[in-house]
Amino acid sequence: MRKVLLIILLAAAVNMVFGTCGDHGMGKMVFMTGDAQASAVFFGIVVEDIDAKTAEAMDYPYGYGILITTVVPGSPAEGYGLQANDVLTAIDGETVKDTEDFDEIREDLEPGEVVSIGYWRAGKDFNKEVTLQGRDTPQMQYQLQKQSTPSKVGSGGGSFIPMWCMIDMDDVNALLEGLHFKPIGDKGILMQGIGGKGHVGKGFFVGGVITSYSDNYKQNNPNDSNYHDYVRYESGFGGVTLDKRFPICKNFVGSLGVLLGGGGHTIELMHSNADYSWPDNNTEFTSGNYHSTINRSYMIVQPKAELMYRLLNWLSIRAEVGYVYGYTGKEGWRVQGLADETFYVKNSPNTPYRGLTFSIGPWFGF
Asked: Using H for helix, E for strand and C for coil, what is the string for 212-248?
């Protein structure tokens, strides 16, 4: 049933995204300036937004501007002295933030106007006055076509990650309730952690995630008021992630991926009346007191799907759904010794570690 629910949720999410994107298709518009519907002014350049990875590679210091990828031979832009790999930063005193902003600025321009053009090249800023030209050269009509290029998949980033995990807590809660403690997360637990990833080429991202949950309780022992019972529960998992991103529309990407790592349950139990005596003549250190930590560890596999929307160059919002599955070749739970040794807990259950996971929150980067 849970697997069916996961498939339904993924299908709904994809449908929502494509419905939102409408007719934008799978590409980002690159402006061969001189679009008949946008402006009568013709530049003759192909431009695109600058992502963080490109800016870093170019040592470009600003958080605005658009990259000129092509200057059409014989075009007005060539006459202005513009070149491929220049960054257009301003037109007529207005800062060019991105390609959409560039198109809006061009709508207000007219052929014959004298304007200043600001651009950045190889670490230096330039500014020159130019006379704008129109689109009246027949041999340049092919330059007025809109060209589509694949949407950017981003360069990576990282963030704090809240994650709602609907893992099976039945065995854990049966133990706690048997010790007269209240159950934990019968409908899921909210894990918190950090994660990050970087682009390694061809839309693939490699990174890592670690997330955990912790809670603790103290109560008077219901059978003997001289004793107190303590419990601390922890659960978590983490590992290496591999994701394949695909562009959906401008500023919107999806990805499919998997996490491979480890995790598990840990329960620390203490029963004490605070009455301890130094051992003497073969006496015991405690009398009726005990303190032990039990755990069950797993190898973790988590297939997942993610949607990310870029709000700013450095900030996005992400949503993810996955299914965490834990595997262990060992029977039951273990008591942790003083070093790396563990001791089998007789009659302990083979507690599974699996369930749906959901996460939504900010992402620093794209």
From this structure: EEEEEEEEECCCCCCCEEEEEEEEEEEEEEEEEEEEE
Q: Give 3-state DSSP helix, strand, coil % of the chain, rounded to 5.
A: 15, 50, 35
pLDDT tens, residue by residue, 325-366 = 999 999 999 998 887 788 999 999 999 999 999 999 999 999
pLDDT value of residue 215:
92
Closest by CA to 160, choosing from 365, 366, 362, is: 362
C-alpha to C-alpha distance for 277 and 266, rounded to whole angstroms: 29
pLDDT tens digits, residue range 166-178? 999 999 999 999 8
Q: Which of 71, 76, 48 is nearest to 149 (CA)?
A: 48
In angstroms, rounded to a whole number, what is the distance separating the alpha carbons of residues 217 and 184? 11
C-alpha to C-alpha distance for 92 and 105, rounded to whole angstroms: 9
Residue with tokens 């995790």: 263
Q: Which domains does the chain have, with CATH numbers?
A: 29-150 (2.30.42.10), 156-365 (2.40.160.20)
Q: Which residue in the block uniquely carries the two structure tokens 């007529």?
A: 92
Rounded CA separation 359/321 (Å)? 6
The structure's pTM equals 0.60
The neighbouring-strand residues paired with 258 are: 242, 303
Q: Is pLDDT larger for residue 276 or for residue 219?
A: 219
Residue with the bigger pLDDT between 236 and 24: it is 236
Tokens of 277: 């005596």
* Of residues 52, 74, 262, 253, the one with CA closest to residue 157: 52
Euclidean distance between CA atoms 176 and 320, whole angstroms: 31
